[in-house]
Amino acid sequence: MIIHILGIPMDLGQRRRGVDMGPSAVRYAGLGDHLTALGFTVYDAGNVSVPVPEMTHHDTPSARHLASIAQVLTEVYAHSQRVAQAGDIGIFLGGDHSVSAGTIAGLSGGDQLGVIWVDAHADFNTPQTSPSGNVHGMPLAALLGYGPPELVDLGRPGRKLDPSRVVLVGVRSLDPDERVRLRESGAGVYTMRDIDERGVAQVAGEVIRRLGHVDRVHVSLDLDALDPTVAPGVGTPVRGGLTYREAHLLMEILADTGRVRSLDLVEINPILDQGNRTAEMAVELASSLLGQTIW
Length: 295
Hints:
By secondary structure, the protein is an alpha/beta fold. It has one domain: Arginase, Chain A, CATH 3.40.800.10.
């Protein structure tokens, strides 16, 4: 099986600099070697070109750098579409979480794609509901058809996902208007309270059953889904996240389905990290998701 790696060193979607170095940190942590050891043939396509914030304009306070982000994601869309059409596995290295508006849009054509959004945040804002105007808080809403045309119509017109094919896991920080819109959307949501009360194994089983009707699964993994004690190098940390073993168990159970075909690794900020711990954690979780086992 072939794995394609693409780096998207984008930090236009938020205000805190540093996540543009995420692809380098993950590569330095040995992603390619780990995947090769699992028996995959790995092709690394390098990075797409991304302008730095200082060389772009904000477009509008309600959606900062939107035009520049959409331009980058158009290239990302084309790349992820080629990966899906080839039937290969795609791993996309962010960058902030706005990159997923491009990766998932490109992957979502053809047969049924299910998305598991593992994140402390729902990223379900629009320019009208966002308190910050940061586009990294908008990609999932755009994929379901809410938000600016630059994101909703990326690659092809209209929404890219049906809510029945989307499940969020690990959510613990929502903006007020975002919470209302998410409840109305029909997407599946498992908060950290669900995980605390029922455990990762039961929640993961329910996630898999909810997506039993899809042919392929994409995991969009924001490293701030993990507790900051485990993954300190993220731009928007929120206490009370997944533990080391909870995160691995979730990946291992998803791997058992045999349907995971693509992965985003996003929001890794080496500037805020401790000895590249967060990038190393990302590599370990990617390995678990793609078949590495204890026994």
